[in-house]
Amino acid sequence: MHDMPLSQIASYAGSKERLRLWIRLLRVSRTIENELRLRLKSEFDMTLPRFDVMAALNRKPDGLLMSDLSRFLLVSNGNVTVIVDRLVTDGLVVRSSREGDRRTSIVTLTDAGMTLFRQIATEHEKWVNELLGSIGDEEARHLAGMLKSFRSNWET
Amino acid sequence: MHDMPLSQIASYAGSKERLRLWIRLLRVSRTIENELRLRLKSEFDMTLPRFDVMAALNRKPDGLLMSDLSRFLLVSNGNVTVIVDRLVTDGLVVRSSREGDRRTSIVTLTDAGMTLFRQIATEHEKWVNELLGSIGDEEARHLAGMLKSFRSNWET
DNA sequence: TCTTGAAACTTCATGCTTGAAATAATTGAC
DNA sequence: GTCAATTATTTCAAGCATGAAGTTTCAAGA
Question: In Å, what is the separation between the CA of B70 and the C1' of D12?
Answer without folding.
Answer: 19
